[in-house]
# Entry
Amino acid sequence: MKISFAKSGLPKAGALVVGVFANRALSATARLVDDATGGTLTRAMDAARFDGKAEQTLSLLCPSGVDVTRVIAIGLGEPGDLSLASLQTFGGVACAALSSGTEKHGVIALDLPADSGLDAVQAAANVGYGARLRSYRFDKYRTKEKKEDKPQLEKLEILSAVGNDAKKAFGLLDAVADGVFLTRDLQSEPANILGPEELARECVRLEKLGVKVTVLGEKDMRKLGMGALLGVGQGSARESQLVVMEWTGAAEKDTAPLAIVGKGVCFDSGGISIKPAGGMEDMKWDMGGAGVTIGLMKALAGRKAKVNVVGLVGLVENMPSGTAQRPGDVVTSMSGQTIEVINTDAEGRLVLCDVLTYCQQEYKPKAIVDLATLTGAIIISLGSEHAGLFSNDDSLSDALTAAGKATGEKLWRMPLGEAYDKQIKSDIADMKNVGGREAGSITAAQFLQRFIDKGTPWAHLDIAGVTWGSKDKPLVPKGGTAFGVRLLDRLVAEQYEDKA
# Structure
C-alpha cells in the first residue's frame, strides 16, 4: 500500500475517512461532508448512537452530494486528549475500515483543532504511520485465498493543512515500520522454514543497509566456552548460531554502544522436559526476542540513527533426541559459572547467559537491554497487556517505562532481590536453571542478573505474553506483534541518539 500526502479538501474518488470528536463535534472535513450531503452524516450519527468516542466507526455507503464511494466517520474522543499516539490509532482504525471495502483508493482527512498544540507535520505523518502499521498481513502461504477476500486498498492519501510537507517526517517513521514488519514476518514464519541458520541469513541481509554482521557457528562458540547455549541446541540436527549486528551511526565511532540482546529459540519443544502437545505449535515464535532485535537494527539503519548500537541474538532449536541435554546435567557457561539443568524447558536463560557474557567481554556496552519470551509465569502475572520489566538500574527502567507508555508497548516493573536469588541455589553447581513454581519470572531474571557485570546498567524484558496477539488491535493485526521494536526505537531516540 502506497501512502502519500496532500492538501485538505473533498476528494473526487475513493473512500473518505473523516474524524469526529466527542459529543459529535464534526471536524472541518466532516462538516463539509455533512453540508454537501444535506445533513446525512448528522442523521446517521443520531440513528447509530455514534457520539465520537475514540475508535468508534460509522460508514455511509455512496452518499448523495459527494464524489466518494463511502464516507467513514471515526471517533477521536475529547479534543484535549488528542496526541500523536491517538493519531496513530486513528490511522490504524481508518486503514482497517478502508481495507474492508472494495476501493483501491482511500483518503484520510486530518483536521486538527486550532488549540491542539500538536505539530501539524508530525500529526499527519503519524496518521500515515498508524495506517502503515495496521496494514500488515502475513499471507505468503495462502495459495487458495480468493481475490475478494484480500484487501483491495492500494493507495492511501492523507489530507491535511501541511500537505506533502509531512512526507519527510513520515519517511523516518516508515523506516521503523519496515523494522516492525520484518519482526512480524520472522515471528510468523513456521519453524520448518526458519531455523537458526536461516534466521542468521536474515540478519546478514541487513548488511545492505550498512549493518556489520558477524555469524558464529558451533565451532566458534565451543572455543569460547559457551556450554550453556550449546547445551540447549545439542538435541537438534540444526546448528546453533550466534549473530552480532553492529550499527555505528554516532559521530564518535568509538563511543560505547547500547546493547540489545534477543533470545532466539526458533522452536521450543521443551527438549526432554517436553511440552504438552496442545499449543506447542505456538513455539515457532519463541524466537520473538531475537526477532525484535533484528527488526530494531533494521529500523535504526533504515532511518540512519545517530547512535552506536550492537544487537546480539542467540539462535537455537530445542529438541528431544538421543543427543539432547538431560535434566540433571551440569553445564559450564562462558562466564565460567556452572549451571545444573533441572528443567530443559527453561532453556532461554541458558541461551541468553552466554550471549550476555560475550556481549560484555567484546563490546563493554554502556547499557544492556535483553528481550525474551522467557516465562509462562509472566503471562499469569501481567496477561497480554504489559511485558515484564526487570532492571538493576532505576534510570534505565524509568526510560524504558516512559518509552513504553509513549508507544503503547507498555511495561510493568517487577522486583528483584536476594530472597528470590536464593531460590536458584544448586546443591552441586553454582546455580540451577529454575527456582520452583513461586515467582518463576523473577527467578528467571535473577538467573540472568548473575551474568551481568557489576556497574553495567541492565534491563530484562519478558515478552512472553505480548509477542503474539489473538485478536486485531488498531496498530497490530492478529499474529506476530513485534512488541518492542517501536519501544526500543523510542528509547534510543530519546536517551542515546546524538542530538542534531
